[in-house]
């Protein structure tokens, strides 16, 4: 249902073959129609995630096969411009954020149940980068089943997922030790974590930071070659979770998690927006780029090293 005049075609970023970022093209595509339980968004901001370029390179063919031409994107902030059958939770003109497939576009479809209202004082670029990291942080912490007072190690704690996971864990009364580069140490302190430098000798530095308290769980969001030592640190793989090292995880018995549920998506956004309402949310945006520069955005994402989300603005 829509009382708004919508175009039949609009701009979207597509790729029609696996390969380099230059495979991404800004093209005219048909405006999608929302199905039952879905809404159509006029996209205001769509964030770049590592899965986007891994799909483009063909790394995920066995897990997430795509049909060409494929429109990347997993999340967006935008305006509700059409309602699918059975949707009564949103109205036309509502400003929302949430998971949305094919979000590198001027218009994208999203499941109504996974969306949250965007507060007027939350910038669209911040909102566009929240849904995936909030869902992932909640999912990882749930799998670790932490209790107040326990000590958690987060590898890549200054990254987009790590930053939210630190905030959620600290809010739950968990003691957090987080690995990060030199320039991000103070940012982690401000979030309530104990920072340690990543790199050679990191586990020894973690033990020193723990000051005799056992590290009982590990959330690995980035970093190469640290899972085996993390398993040894906590005494087994049962409470080690990775979102970034599927191949390394399997032989070690470590849980690899990818892809959430409506429940974790809703909880993640609820928690993030509660932090925003309290004035304490930290969700950095690394840079914003126009939709036409999606190739440059994915190059930046592949290079890594920056703090915060890369966000496309249609």
TrEMBL record:
<dbReference type="InterPro" id="IPR020843">
    <property type="entry name" value="ER"/>
</dbReference>
<dbReference type="InterPro" id="IPR036291">
    <property type="entry name" value="NAD(P)-bd_dom_sf"/>
</dbReference>
<dbReference type="InterPro" id="IPR013154">
    <property type="entry name" value="ADH-like_N"/>
</dbReference>
<keyword id="KW-0560">Oxidoreductase</keyword>
<dbReference type="GO" id="GO:0016491">
    <property type="term" value="F:oxidoreductase activity"/>
</dbReference>
<dbReference type="InterPro" id="IPR011032">
    <property type="entry name" value="GroES-like_sf"/>
</dbReference>
<feature type="domain" description="Enoyl reductase (ER)">
    <location>
        <begin position="19"/>
        <end position="312"/>
    </location>
</feature>
<keyword id="KW-0521">NADP</keyword>
<dbReference type="InterPro" id="IPR051603">
    <property type="entry name" value="Zinc-ADH_QOR/CCCR"/>
</dbReference>
<protein>
    <submittedName>
        <fullName>NADP-dependent oxidoreductase</fullName>
        <ecNumber>1.-.-.-</ecNumber>
    </submittedName>
</protein>
<dbReference type="Pfam" id="PF08240">
    <property type="entry name" value="ADH_N"/>
</dbReference>
<dbReference type="Pfam" id="PF13602">
    <property type="entry name" value="ADH_zinc_N_2"/>
</dbReference>
């Amino acid at each position: 249902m829509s009382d708004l005049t919508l175009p039949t075609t609009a701009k979207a970023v597509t790729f029609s073959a696996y390969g380099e970022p230059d495979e991404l093209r800004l093209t005219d595509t048909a405006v999608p129609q929302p199905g039952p339980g879905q809404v159509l968004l006029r996209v205001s901001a769509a964030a770049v995630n590592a899965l986007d370029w891994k799909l483009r390179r063909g790394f995920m063919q066995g897990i997430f096969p795509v049909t060409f031409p494929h429109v990347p994107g997993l999340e967006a902030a935008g305006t509700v411009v059409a309602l699918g059958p059975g949707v009564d939770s949103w109205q036309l003109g509502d400003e929302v954020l949430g998971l949305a497939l094919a979000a590198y576009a001027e218009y994208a479809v999203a499941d109504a149940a996974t969306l949250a209202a965007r507060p007027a004082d939350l910038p669209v670029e911040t909102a566009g980068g929240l849904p995936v990291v909030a869902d992932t942080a909640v999912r990882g912490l749930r799998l670790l089943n932490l209790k107040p007072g326990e000590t958690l190690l987060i590898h890549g704690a200054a990254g987009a997922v790590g930053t939210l996971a630190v905030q959620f864990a600290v809010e739950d009364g968990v003691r957090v030790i987080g690995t990060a580069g030199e320039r991000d140490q103070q940012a982690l302190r401000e979030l309530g974590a104990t920072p340690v430098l990543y790199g050679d000798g990191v586990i020894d530095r973690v033990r020193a930071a723990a000051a005799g308290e056992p590290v009982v769980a590990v959330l690995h969001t980035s970093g190469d070659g640290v899972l085996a030592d993390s398993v040894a640190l906590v005494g087994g793989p049962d409470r080690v979770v990775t979102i970034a090292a599927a191949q390394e995880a399997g032989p070690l018995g470590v849980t690899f998690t990818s892809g959430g549920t409506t429940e974790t998506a809703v909880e993640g956004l609820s928690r993030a927006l509660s932090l925003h309402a309290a004035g304490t949310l930290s969700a950095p945006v690394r840079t914003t780029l126009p939709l036409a520069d999606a190739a440059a955005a994915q190059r930046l994402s592949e290079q890594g090293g920056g703090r915060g989300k890369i966000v496309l603005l249609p």
